Model the fold of this input.
Amino acid sequence: MDKEGIRDLRNYVGGCFVEHDGSEWMDVLEPATGERFARLPLSGSNDVDAAVEAAREAQPGWAALGKDSRADWLDRIADSLEVSFEEVAELESRDTGKPISLARAVDANRSVANFRFFAGLIREQEKETFEMEDATNYVVNRPVGVGALITPWNLPLYLLSWKVAPAIGMGNTVVCKPSELTPMTADLLMRVIDGVGLPAGVVNLVHGDGMGAGSPLVAHPGIDLVSFTGGTATGEKVAESAAPAFKKLSLELGGKNSSIVFADCDMEKTIAGVVRSGFLNQGQVCLCGSRILVEDSVYDEFERAFVEAVEQMRIGDPADDSTDLGALISKDHLQKVQGYVDIAIEEGGRILTGGTPCLPSGFEEGNWMAPTVIADLPPESRCSTEEIFGPVVTLHRFQSEEEAVGIANGTRYGLAGSVWTSDMEKGKRVSESMESGMVWVNTWLHRDLRVPFGGVKDSGVGREGGRWSLGFFSEAMNVCLKHD
Ligand code: NAD
Done:
């Protein structure tokens, strides 16, 4: 820590915090204020080599421990992380610009829960057997080896812990590469892991940007699997690099998700649910419902009440408990989101609210944008089909169930969606017609950690969650014993 309270982060390799092999650094900025509060080492290939080597050395011993001992380690990490609950929430809020209440309820909470959940699931795992008349088959779930875990900036520790816990729980060792924009809670996790005394080399971390650290990590011959969460364009590069070596690959990518509102919905609950799904974390959640399709007969009523509810959200100091909306992650991202509003106007959109930057007093240097609602855009327009990943939603009318499903499926993405109706049969029918990995009926982001999580089309490859994560982070081997 220097005189101004700026921390220099370090990589975590082989159980030690180490300097990177180079002299380049990047400032870590607070999105709300634009102020620097840490420096991130821009690591390169040599740092990646050292981390992969440490992970390879540790892997056989870690795998030999057995699943129950590894599950005990996950619980120890969860207990220690829970002690740092408030620090996790504060760091996440400063690092991402999200409201502290959200950082507590979602980020800090889920990061602890992820370790506990996978500890329990791994302990409960039973050996599968398949009897034949003259033989018995059983399945051994062996570790894959060394994993590269690459994560984005919107839910930093939530997503990193979602990968680390099942990966090491199944006997792999890992090298983490968190987003260069939000490295603070990944650093905290390494301090927790160091503090509980996890065997050296089981979890390693290399800070840096995508080209300098992420790309050599994915391409490294010592990496056996890649679990990547981030944008679709980056996912393409990751897939290109991992495929020739047949690395096991999971890609959790972008989304452009629809919320379908039928006339028979409970309007009050629907407005609250659709506002939450459109704007949680300033619309920077891959699952956010940013295209809202409303049945024609209730469209006008919905539009009025929805805009009113959006305008009631409180934007401001992320550290204030009563804040609903914080800042966007970076100046570049703010520009991208504003660019989409300009495109919407060119495409014939009508801005019902927002559309401009808004600077809460005292936060003039931060990245702020008023929540924005746009109507009258054709469903196939760019703003209605491309991922904006900010506080911008578009409203569309539909006449029939078929038309709603057609609009919902009219994007390259297929991550999530929600359906709002009092008719459960219709809710199920519409959900099952959607080209999507996940659909919620009369709710949104209602997560059970046991269910499959992931997308279709350009939203990704593979599934995480519950036994799907355990399957991805292991190799199922069949042993067949012939009877006498
Ligand atoms: P991004 O793709 O820019 O970066 C993600 C991570 O990849 C970062 O750590 C980055 O440094 C790294 N990276 C960049 N280039 C790389 C390369 N060539 N090789 C290896 N690593 C590289 O994404 P972002 O802007 O950080 O995150 C926003 C995106 O993430 C959105 O598209 C959002 O939908 C998506 N996302 C998806 C999910 C999901 O579960 N499907 C969850 C959260 C976010």
Summary: The mean pLDDT is 97.
